[in-house]
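During the second half of the funding period, the structural biology subgroup turned its attention to how the target accommodates small molecules. The most pressing case was coenzyme A, which had performed well in the primary screen but for which no bound structure existed. We therefore specified the complex as follows and requested a full 3D prediction, including the ligand pose.
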Amino acid sequence: MQGAYERAYAEWRRDPEGFWRDAAREIAWYRSPTQIFTADGGPYGRWFADGETNTCYNCLDRHIADGRGGDTAVIYDSAISSTKRSYTFDDALREVNAIAVVLRRLGIQKRDRVVLYMPMVPEAIFSMLACARIGAVHSVVFGGFAANELASRIDDSEAKLIITASCGLEPGRVVPYKPLVDQALALAKVKPQHCLVLQRPQLTADLTAGRDLDFESLITDARGQDVECVSVKATDPLYILYTSGTTGQPKGVVRDNGGHMVALKWSMANIFGVRPGEVFWAASDIGWVVGHSYIVYAPLLSGVTTVVFEGKPIGTPDAGTYWRIVSEHRVRVLFTAPTAFRAIRREDSEGSFIRTYPMPEFRALFLAGERADPETLKWAERMLGVPVIDHWWQTETGWPMVANPLGIEQLPVKHGSPSVPMPGYDISVLDDAGHLVPSGTLGNIVVRLPLPPGCLPTLWKADERFRQAYLEEFPGYYKTADAGYVDEDGYLFIMSRTDDIINCAGHRLSTGAMEEVVATHPDVAECAVIGVADALKGQVPCGLLVLKKSVSRETHAIESEVVALIRDKIGPVACFRTAIAVDRLPKTRSGKILRGTMQKMADGLPWKMPATIDDPAVLEEIAAALRTRGFGGLPM
Ligand code: COA
Ligand code: AMP
């Protein structure tokens, strides 16, 4: 007999448009869509093309209209500044309205872009919703990125306004944001007219007269005034979120309004199994897609209370913080990255903090963002006594492609697998020539087009780049750039990326982008950046440098400069702490650097001498260099 998941998946397969038409009924529309999927718009088609709606209305006004204005929408808990606040839907709407008034006064119109460079404070979420309210397009940049990265996003999005804060708070360190913003504005070719600055009590930023404006005083002035929600097309952009691509130029992932709401609301109920009025916590940052989808939009669209957390799983102040929050705020479902659990496990392997906090209502833990190693997963299951659900997706898709759908039916867990495809995703594994491979065989994971609602329709002003990056290699499919296999029960196993992306502490980083920066050091002739396995962060980058012949300085000084250069140009989030000067890099006879082989060596995995290698002796030199820094370096 078919189970509930199989029935739901089969129902979608039988009539995909009917499936999403039904899901779209959960959304309030100014004009209900009659066209569900239109094949001739955008690179692969568009969802709900004739629908009109507003995302902010669906997140706030709608619940107030349903009589839920007094229910809690947002709980803010900063474990670093020991601040706690909560906002009802009424409170949140008041704040969002005030910000929307200010945006309007500053000349922000429908479709204008607003860049947010904000720490984890409620004002950041309210600013996102205020943009949505007036049809402006937000682009949130993670606070751990450097000025250069911020500047490239300001330029690519042609931002008209920046919203920032005086500082972010990292454990034991106040990170001044404003100097980074000033530097980014100096670097950027596009000059936003204004910069709204939220002054936090921990640091007051200097404001540049004429350009910088004090957030709080403008908002205080505007409180009590309302702004009507602007009706936007379902296909109009809600936001742009930049993510690492294979070059230094990040990809501007576009999210629309209609399909995004339909998919996220469906996922909250069916995948996460969370109901209106319950508390859901995604312990991530609004700078990442997890933050966009599961701190802000999915919970609020579903009338679910969301937790905005500023802190870390350990050290703020201890490995019990997550459990304090779950217990104190009655969190039903928690979503975080496996790296956070590895950190907690390392500090509290016996789970004594877990036993300190009563969590009778806690129902499930969801993990994503990187491979959930079975040991950590089993430990979490043992300690928590609730289902621990691995699920797989990407910035591009905006919501899970593969999961164990708790809201439909809990399927048996297979450790190491995020389980099965969700309705909307027809997933296959292909060899490099584009042929289907048998179950159990490793290959390229692809999704048959069209992608479901909620996935990126294209890249910001870059249809051609979108086609080249995702659609060209396997015609008729979206290339996920992940490699893996499907087992005999239809469970997917994600094994690695097929491009230069590495995953460090749940953060997606491009080693190619790092190589571009390293290559700008005047003493570096050539370089390679590889991802090396790390017990806590999953992977960390390691740079191998060939110095110019003319260089006579201490190599150690140059290595330190390269580390500082990455921090300065990409940001501390890159976690780039190791640069090793070597005499030469291993290459094929056609000149391709053998990054994969070096990575295996660094991880201490077995590796084979590539048949095409130019000079086999180079690999021994690399192994020796890696050993000096404590990396694998096993002999062949
Ligand atoms: N603003 C400024 N700097 C930031 C920052 C931010 N928002 N976020 C991180 N950084 C800095 C950190 O201070 C650190 O700087 P340092 O090199 O001076 O120490 C650097 O970037 C690396 O940060 P991080 O990756 O967080 O490492 P960590 O050693 O401080 O903490 C973990 C390790 C595992 C506890 C942490 O990475 C973590 O909580 N990971 C979970 C990630 C997550 O939830 N990802 C979301 C995807 S679902
Ligand atoms: P991001 O776009 O930052 O969400 O990163 C997406 C990438 O992270 C994916 O393409 C995978 O490589 C990796 N990833 C995300 N979730 C998982 C998971 N559950 N298991 C394995 N890898 C994952």
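Two results from this model are relevant to the next phase. The chain has a mean pLDDT of 96. The longest strand covers residues 524-534.
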